[in-house]
Amino acid sequence: RLLHLLSQDALEIFYMVRIDNMYITSFYRDVISKGQYYLATGVLKFVDPPKLDSSVDRELYTIQLADITSDLDSAVSANLTGKPAHVYLGFIDKLTEEPELEETFLVYEGVIESASYESELSEIGESLIVIKCASPMIGLDMKRPFYTNKHYIQQQNPSDTCFDQVYAGAGVINLKWGKK
Question: Which of 35, 72, 119, 163 has the CB geometry, 3.0–4.6 Å to 67, for a possible disulfide?
Answer without folding.
Answer: 72
